Amino acid sequence: MFCLAQKQKFSCHHSFVFLVGFFLPGCSSENEKKGKILLTLAGGSKGSFYGDLGEMLSETINSSSDSIEIALQHTAGPEANLRLLSGEECQLAVTTSDLAYYAARAETPYEAESIASFSPLATLGVMPLHVLVSNNSNLKDWGRLAGKKISLGRGGSRTHKLALLFLDYLELELADFQDYYYTEEKALKSLSAGDIDAAFVADTAPFRGKANPADYKLLPFHPAVLEECTDSTSFLVGCTIPAGTFYNQDEPAPGLGVEILLLISKQAEEILGEELLNELKEILAPGITNPPY
Questions:
Q1: Cβ(91)–Cβ(255) under 8 Å?
Q2: pLDDT 10s digits, 16-64
Q3: Which pLDDT score, from 0 to 100, does residue 150 have?
Q4: Of 1, 103, 229, 253, which one has the fewest beta carbons inside 10 Å?
């Protein structure tokens, strides 16, 4: 479980313009009496990391603000959330920095879509990109991957895109090994079964289910490669994998990841105004206090 540090309640005195799209059915009159603006937040599916994160964010804001009420909408996850900002369903969306980058530039998976303008409201934490091997593997570094069976993530997924980007930095080509395109769940099962040798995992969702991080070893990133990645790509950031997360990992390990963001639509940004935006940013400033495992 993760949480945000709780803040004292705020009290703001404003004359608000209420948009019909900003209220859930049956809730507008109640919130008008309270003098609150109701915003809908796109999180994730129930029980998922992003679903739980959305619940935590809505509860924290609702208990910390006298001016804003958050209604949570369960969704298919961070990729779908950016599309919801384009309609009137949601005004806030949890996503990641790589997806926000692709949406802003109309790149895959948003190349054929018109995504509404948005702004980052808060950086909540980091979702790491792992390269994992089984806990009985003899692989210890990238130099031994030639000819090995490696899962790069489901074709077209964000894991797949991040894996190809990282391999490019390493100057490795697909012809150097046997490439597979598995989901994270299938990749971890295949690692355990010995069907593949390594897997890129850019989502910790499998570890919130049946998969146990202690069943896998982390293939470490070289510091020079990490520095090149973060210097060259705006949506990649360095992070630290806590000691004891993976098998035989006695020390914290340097890692690479994408930021977990809370976005706000430009329309909602204009409605809230500077004072309420600053209130939200202060409430969200602590970020996630526990890592996403």
A1: no
A2: 222 333 443 334 445 444 689 999 999 999 988 899 999 999 999 999 9
A3: 96
A4: 1
Give the model's pLDDT for residue 34: 65
Residue with tokens 């990729």: 79
Dump pLDDT digits (tens) for 212-228. Answer: 898 999 998 888 889 99
Q: Give the pLDDT band (50/70/90) at residue 15.
A: very low
The DSSP secondary structure of the chain, one letter per residue, reads -------PPB-----PPPPGGGS-TTTHHHHHHHT-EEEEEE--STTSHHHHHHHHHHHHHHHHBSSEEEEEE--S-HHHHHHHTTSSS-SEEEEEHHHHHHHHTT-TTSTTS-PPPEEEEEEEEEEEEEEEEETT----SGGG-TT-EEE--STTSHHHHHHHHHHHHTT--GGGSEEE---HHHHHHHHHHTS-SEEEE---GGGGTT--GGGEEE-PPPHHHHHHHHHH-TTEEEEEEPTTSSTT--S-EEEEEEEEEEEEEHHHHHHHHHHHHHHHHHHHTT--SS---
CA 150 to chain centre: 23
Range of the domain at 159: 127-258
121 with 139, same domain: the answer is no
Residues 133, 250 share a domain: yes
Share of the chain above pLDDT 90, in %: 59
> Same structural domain for residues 131 and 248?
yes
